[in-house]
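Researcher: Re-running this chain for the archive, since the previous output was lost when a drive failed. Same request as before.
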Amino acid sequence: MSGEKQVVHLVSRSSLLAVMLASDTNTSTAMAFKLMFSLALLLSLWATAGCDFFVEDGTGTYAITEDYAAQCGYSISILSLLGLVELRASYFSCHTEKGAGFSFRFNLITTYEGVDAYYALNKTCSSPLPWSPREVTCEVNYMEVSVRSELPCQSGSSDDSSTLGPLYSPSTEVWQVTFQNPYQQLPPMNLSQARQEGYIFDHVHDRIVFRTPYGQPESYHTEVTGVPVEVVHATVFSRQSWVVVMVDLIAACSMDEGSYDSGYMIWGTPEALYPSLGTTQISFGLNGNLVEQAAVVQKGFIMERYNSTVQIGIPYDAEGGYRKSFVSDGLSEFYIFNLYLKQTSVDERHEETVLWFHRTLVTPLLTSPLFTEDQTDVDDGTFSIHLGKVPRDVELTSVQLNGQEFAVPFSDSIAYTLTEVRHSNKSHSYTLKVPLHDPIVIQEFSKENAAMLHKLDMNYTLIVKPGDEPYYHTFSVTARMAVSPPSFDVVCTESGIDFKLAYRSFDYLWDFTIGSDRLTPVLAANHGYTMSNDSQSLLLSVPLFTHGYKYKDIGLNGFLGTFSILVRDRETADILTSTTKTCLFNATEFIMCSTNGWMTVVVDLSVVLPSGEMPTRFHLLNNLCVPKAVDGTRVLFSFPLHSCGSTVKLAKENVTYQNKIYLDTSETAVEGMTVQCTYPLVGLHRLFSIHKFESDKEGVGSIIPFVETTKATMTPAKMTTIAPQRTRSPSLHLPPSYPTARYIKVYRVHNKPGQFSKGPKGKLQVKTLLRYA
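Model: Regenerated structure tokens:
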């Protein structure tokens, strides 16, 4: 063939059609084209596009139909699913203009959506290298054999320049042909009759050519070493004077359709289709290109000789093959190979026969599973799903996430990402990322796994191109996140303790309690807490001296206050963990009224001292009860409510325990403070029956300054006037739980007359006063 590789792009008005006219000049290909001129027309055709070929010579233009192509030496392969059309023409085809070279003139008409486009495809090839004495071509739709003509009686006159004249020459009538068939005796026929039966005989460039479509009545089928073979044996003869000229023309081709085994497409041909002194020489390749022997192994091809049979193995993914996806009970694929093989044999007369094969081999439908991998990293907080091995002709169009569909590509308004990567093997892959805590993700707690399960069901919709046939690929992933009870962020303030919790998606599994009571807005309001609770966070501010505090290390300069929030299993109420915070509170004055019946007070008595005087002694009503600590005028007392001379005053709704702190400054007067704790009666479980103090709530304490004369000098004659009492609240009111409750003994009860009086609207009020030693 002449010329270097050339590419011509012709674009139709619809911009949908690209036509490539290609020729190649490498050595093995040039040998392959001794008998065949190849026009590889790679057409990117849409499924609805059509194309028609016409051949043109000096006598007119002829449509290349299927029958006409097989008879006249043209081969057209249309792989519509691949958008591929290929035309091959024999050097000895009917309308080749033969001169110094071989000229071909073709017209291509394409139609798309009712619009026709015309292309002229012309090519002239120089004379090929010398042919072998016998050349046989086994095309996909016909067999052709040409032999060297060495006939007698060839004179220099123009009338006798060819014993076998041109195809339409009247001299063809003197020639007859008989077909040899081992199964029946066939009568001879002249060449005109043979042509009407689809046979072509010609004499071109000193070669006698015989061409026949497959499956003619005069052909026969046999098996050679287990391989099916079709044979046409034609003997052309002519009697000229006393000389009879006979030419034996035999076309024998392997009809093996190929088989698929373990990743290879296997095709075989007999070793001895034609006589040979030894083994035949084999070279082969794909798409009209013979592969150098050294590259055969590199490309993964296999050639084996077994039982006088040559077997060729082509790997399914060999370069030069064509692949197509197909939807059939899942995603499938098939591969198409245009096998090109040259087989050379030498007979006992050292005459060479070259056999050329063009075979289209198609694998069966093979499963083409997509590869899906869950690459989720829980610590990263994102689902990551890899969809791989997506064929190049398959396109992802949409993704359903837990039933909600999203078109591909994703819009910028959603929080999900889809990344496509194209690979060197012409496949591509997609990586989908979805946040684990996105609302579209299903979240549920699994007791069995002791974890929070994040579930995502995906349904990928893929389209096989060209076309719109969908394939659905489903995949489900579950990410397990170990759940642990929450821990609050805690801050100490001057007036209490603040707790803050940023909610996680599974924090609904727990109950938060103060002791045994579930933390609710109502509970917070009843206990004086400040609570803010929404879907994002919980904030609880717990002021000092409210329910739930525990105190220790109480001293004149302050104390430690501890508050705990318990985390319980919502179903079993078991305590799982707690957040406990202890803070140091500095206070110069406070009173604590505990739930177990103790009063603890720190008070500064300087406000009741005359200027310049210092107390000599501090005590309670029972002068044996002295402070636990003293610092100048500041004292610390801690004593049970039912002791140290405390009095109890019962009212309608509460009970008040009262005592007095005395500081002796002279022999005639005692100054000090009245301290008292008041409890609601509804919260007291036991009061007098067993003398054990129990209260649901802490009491409210008060510190009241007073001045009165001492008992030792109180006589009717010397009774001093008691100054009006001033009630002063301490800077802090602290309801502690220190120390623990204990049983006490009631020594005496004073029922003094005059304790009954009329209340509002004439109702009788009872004021009961009890005094404890």
